[in-house]
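ENCODED BACKBONE
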Amino acid sequence: MSEAWRQRKVQCASPTGLHRMAYLEWGSRDNPRVLVCVHGLTRCARDFDFLARDLASRYRVVCPDVAGRGDSDWLTSPIEYQVPTYVSDMVTLLARLDVETVDWVGTSLGGLIGMVLAAMPGSPITRLVLNDVGTVVTRASLTRIASYVGKWPALPTMEAAEAHVRSVNAPFGPHSDAEWRFLTEHVVRKNPDGSLRMHYDPSISVAFTSQPPQHDLEQWDLYDRIRCPTMVIRGERSDLLTRDTASKMALRGPRPKVAEIAGVGHAPTLIHEDQIKLVREFLSGEY
């Protein structure tokens, strides 16, 4: 794939200091239509390459690396790896972009950040896509995530890294060898000795390990304050967003359109054309 993005960084503030958040920008900077795409817990901005390339003629597409991931700075205090920090960073990003409104696509953690922003009075979000996340995050999924986040085996080669990514992200569903390599290459970094490590700060795991999940996390009150048109995409086999929760979401709050991706768990990668088409049609008002 040819590269058509530009990378920039914006300085953000947290209680313990300043940090830089990296983001990729696709399409014309003069386009008033802006789409922000935010990745999941241990993923990165490059996850949206396929979606961004498809939509760059219609949008200025902006894909940030959430703090502690990708090319963004690591935070001084691990306890700041929380949604309120990420929301603050995104507000700073929107100020940098100098835009009043945006559409939003959020996968998992990126969707939670989008939900919080969309629920605020005067929210800048005009259309919201929640990719395999919603009002209830199950204890089972939190326990699964806690079992691997911040931990990885020795990764002496890219092949070893890919095996690890395939194992941890098996719920992504069927992908070609080339797609798995793509999903691996952008989430590893080289160590001084030439071996590889995952691209994120292991301390993002503190929020999970300091307080092991005892129950599902529910956010119905937050969700019911969302007023913008919303779409929920769910992996058929997702352990994070259950079919029951998605069905209940469809009947309250923003009353979203719900689409289910067959053969996929947590979370659809938005690489394949059928998934991209769902997003494209919803954002254009066709779905």
Observations:
- The longest strand covers residues 17-26.
- The chain has a mean pLDDT of 95.
- Residues 83-97 form the longest helix (15 residues).
- Residues 6-138+219-283 form a domain with the Rossmann fold fold (CATH 3.40.50.1820).
